[in-house]
Amino acid sequence: MKNLSVVSEFILLGIPHTEGLETMLLVLFLSFYIFTLMGNLLILLAIVSSTRLHTPMYFFLCKLSIFDIFFPSVSSPKMLCYLSGNSRAISYAGCASQLFFYHFLGCTECFLYTVMAYDRFVAICHPLRYTVIMSHRACVILAMGTSFFGCIQATFLTTLTFQLPYCGPNEVDYYFCDIPVMLKLACADTSALEMVGFISVGLMPLSCFLLVLTSYSRIVFSILQIHSAEGRRHAFSTCSAHLTAILLFYLPVVLIYLRPTPSPWLDATVQILNNLVTPMLNPLIYSLRNKEVKSSLRRVLHQLGFLPEQL
């Protein structure tokens, strides 16, 4: 389809109803962003440096940490740039890239959480067959599959959004380019596309969530069959971290994309939680409940000179 757009750039208006709070938001979001990068880099170093953590569960956690570094990097640098007083303009190609990479990374994480739930299901419900089912080859295929299907979903959503003509106005009433706010600027009827987008964006995370729910229903049933109290405690401890991270990921998606009447201010608040706060909390969630990760983190921090030798 021929692109009829005449808009060459868009203006990001930022978070609604936050005029005059730019300096405070800059400090707050910059702090979140730095802690997100540092926390996930430490998790990566802890996993890579410890041979005890070279297992399927930590392989997927390693990929999650990588994506938690890139996911907030899609929108945060530009947001921090204009909060510091620089231009709010973003090129047409830059806007399309933001939307693509946001949904590529987000969809991949969604699939990745589903794979991680399957990994826990196999580990707890079929422990004797775990190493056979979750072989190195299977883990690589699953990891590549999450990115492949994430790319397909993001390509579909980006094409759906930017095949529309944009002939003015060009002010995006948000802090980055996302589907709902971009459709409002299109010079064409978007009702059919809104429905297709709603089904696509809503169906994918809902399907993944139902698969996760099924896995954990089986997991809970299996854990309750464990006779050892220590065994039950260890199994629940391992799974509770994953469940916490899943809830923090899926709740914002439901609130943003599956509500019938959008609220720009609420959407922005929830999306910042999803973009910055959740990736920042994931290293804490996975390390505080895991003795092996904490032990490896102590060694990494000691080698970097942040902890005294006795720790």
Automatic annotation (TrEMBL):
GO CC entries: plasma membrane
Main location: membrane
Domain annotation G-protein coupled receptors family 1 profile: ranges: 39-286
Membrane topology: Multi-pass membrane protein
Subcellular localization, as worded in the UniProt entry: Cell membrane
Gene Ontology molecular functions: G protein-coupled receptor activity; olfactory receptor activity
Keywords, in A-Z order: Cell membrane, G-protein coupled receptor, Membrane, Olfaction, Receptor, Sensory transduction, Transducer, Transmembrane, Transmembrane helix
PROSITE patterns registered for this protein in UniProt: G_PROTEIN_RECEP_F1_2
Domain of life: Eukaryota
Transmembrane segments: 24-48, 139-162, 195-214, 235-258
Annotated PANTHER family: OLFACTORY RECEPTOR
Protein name: G-protein coupled receptors family 1 profile domain-containing protein
